[in-house]
Amino acid sequence: xxxxxxxxxxxxxxxxxxxxxxxxxxxxxxxxxxxxxxxxxxxxxxxxxxxxxxxxxxxxxxxxxxxxxxxxxxxxxxxxxxxxxxxxxxxxxxxxxxxxxxxxxxxxxxxxxxxxxxxxxxxxxxxxxxxxxxxxxxxxxxxxxxxxxxxxxxxxxxxxxxxxxxxxxxxxxxxxxxxxxxxxxxxxxxxxxxxxxxxxxxxxxxxxxxxxxxxxxxxxxx
Length: 222
Prior knowledge:
Elements: H1 3-7, H2 12-24, H3 28-50, H4 53-69, H5 80-102, H6 105-114, H7 129-147, H8 151-162, H9 167-174, H10 178-200, H11 202-208
Helix pairs in contact: 2-3, 3-4, 3-5, 3-8, 4-5, 5-9, 7-10, 8-10, 9-10, 10-11
């Protein structure tokens, strides 16, 4: 390798290519690294589609099997995380379609009602116990509101807000135009905010919402 090139910071894509090369050579540590880096994101994507934790875990496992069996087809045109996310999303959507065919609508609605909600990351740096408790309660309501979003909005919301993916990454993952991603995110935020307003009121929500949500307008909740 050219010394000048070696001295430069290694971009993520190069790191992905190296991981893939090692995995194709049956390096167990490469497989572990890939899974450790992507487990949370892939689970949340699958969970946002299936709204069932156990089935989401199964979908992620199947997605890994599919991805590792076809690892030689990875060309580095997108990040490895995006490539894995797309495989996971396709696996979850396939399971959802099969479930809709074989499960009676009433049973399906019962399954949705009992499903666990998507766990959101929570900062615990606040020194005010009452405010921290209020933030936790708000997050629980946001999680419930997210689960109730229409699928088209929920996928964008999870990718952008929970996973912090860029507009470009989200558009690539969901095969959407970037403007569509922005429009759906705006609508998803509004639906979540409207649901919270109806439950706790705008004043309490503004007072209790974690400050981190407002630091980055492009990825903030509201």
